[in-house]
Amino acid sequence: MTTHRIGLVVPSSNVTVETEVPALLGRHPGARFSFHSSRMRMHKVSPEELRAMNAQRERCIGELSDAGVDAVLYACLVALMAQGPGEHRRTEAAVTEQLAQAGQRPAVLSSAGALVEALAALGARRIALVTPYLRPLAEQVVSYLESEGLEVLDWAALEVGDNAEVGCIPGERVMAAARGLDLSGADALVISACVQMPSLDLIGPAEAEFGIPVLSAATAGAFTLLRHLGLPTALPGAGRLLAAGQAVAR
């Protein structure tokens, strides 16, 4: 069974993505994965710290290139969305170019781009979402998604500015925020628009309660990694997004 090396670029204060993405991909019946991280310093989820964090990207990609990874996931959704429309494409292109200069051509993805791609795969155009961010950053995430042709019907900001605290937000608080949304007409619910806000235990119960597809930055990231590696995307217990199991040629 082939082992695929996954490179993760993560904020230094993130403790969730390296738990949830491996947990998801560990359910895959036909492949094994190893995970290799490089960290960008960031504590407060603020525009200033996000810009400073993004400036560390080249160092992180250089470190991951030494590991010869098969795929790279730039795992901070808001860091890219806060820079304006289309930023995930610009960042993915810059990372691809840097790795090409090192003679490597892994799949290059970002959490921001993965969410957009996963929603498209679901055929979801009208969505609702829960974010942990302070309201101004949450508004930028909403605007970014709308610039991608999505209609955000309703959304919630939990107003947590410390990234370490985001990783400790109780699931019941997230579910309570989701219950407060108007989901009438929504094609899907993004229950965690942040790779740091825990989501895995919420996907199944939320789909059962709300009756629509439910995804998160983590499940979108896992789906898109599998898709770009040419692997079947079926993972048990991860919601409708990961229930189909068809490998998609890229």
TrEMBL record:
- Quaternary state and interactors: Homodimer.
* Signal sequence, renumbered to the chain: none
**Entries under InterPro entries matching the protein:** Iso_Racemase_Enz_sf, MaiA/AMDase, Maleate_isomerase
Q: Which UniProt keywords apply?
A: Isomerase
Q: Which reaction does it catalyse?
A: maleate = fumarate
List GO molecular-function terms, semicolon-separated: isomerase activity
The miscellaneous annotation reads: Reaction is initiated by nucleophilic attack of cysteine at the double bond, yielding a covalent succinylcysteine-like intermediate.
Query: Per the similarity annotation, which family is this?
Result: Belongs to the maleate isomerase family.
What positions constitute the catalytic site?
A: 76, 194
Q: What is this protein called?
A: Maleate isomerase
- Under Enzyme Commission nomenclature, its number is 5.2.1.1
- What is its biological role? Catalyzes cis-trans isomerization of the C2-C3 double bond in maleate to yield fumarate.
Q: Which residues bind substrate?
A: 14, 76-78, 133, 163, 195-196
User: Superkingdom of the source?
Assistant: Bacteria
